[in-house]
Please model this.
Amino acid sequence: MKFLFDLLPVALFFAAFKISEAHAQGAAGLISQVLGVVGLGTGIAVKQGPIMVATLVVILATALQIGWVRLRHGRVDKMLWLSLVLVVFFGGLTLILHDEVFIKWKPTVLYWAFAAVLLVSERLMNKNLIRNMLEAQMQLPEPVWRRLNLAWAGFFALMGVLNLLIAFAFHLSTEVWVNFKLFGSMGLMLAFVVIQGMFLSRYLEEKP
Model:
């Protein structure tokens, strides 16, 4: 359930883009009206409507998600705060400058931030964050925890690179990038978790 809840802003981003894409003229008109309240509603092309509506939706969804977590649990994970800051910053630039490039950069910056936090915490603070999250469920030798932490950091770093390739290097459409943002990223994450589980199974079997 937590995985689905964490995925909610991305799912709403995807849904908003698909609905807006089917009604591009209306989407452009809607976002022009919304941004017109702050004097930013002019010069929005019809083809920009879907991604800008989706960007506004994901900003609002992420903010509401954090508000719900704060009310329900009293505290919000630092990674969720980081995600909000990045989506507001890059999404805001997309809305203000009418340029989808900025929202496309957001996943890469977030993935690379995750990778950096995992590496810096272990190397400089001697704190293995993957171990902190999982040691209540499993006991592993110290070298395995280090490899696991490094594997997650490497995975996030590669996901950041892959997002840039899909968004810019291969000259694919925004629609392809939106599809990858939900289904591609989720599929790769699930595959990585499965492979990780297979690797860890040998240690779990040895547990008394």
Notes: The helical segments are 2-22, 24-36, 49-73, 78-97, 101-125, 129-134, 142-169, 174-206. DSSP finds eight helices and no strands in the chain. The two ends are 30 Å apart (CA to CA).
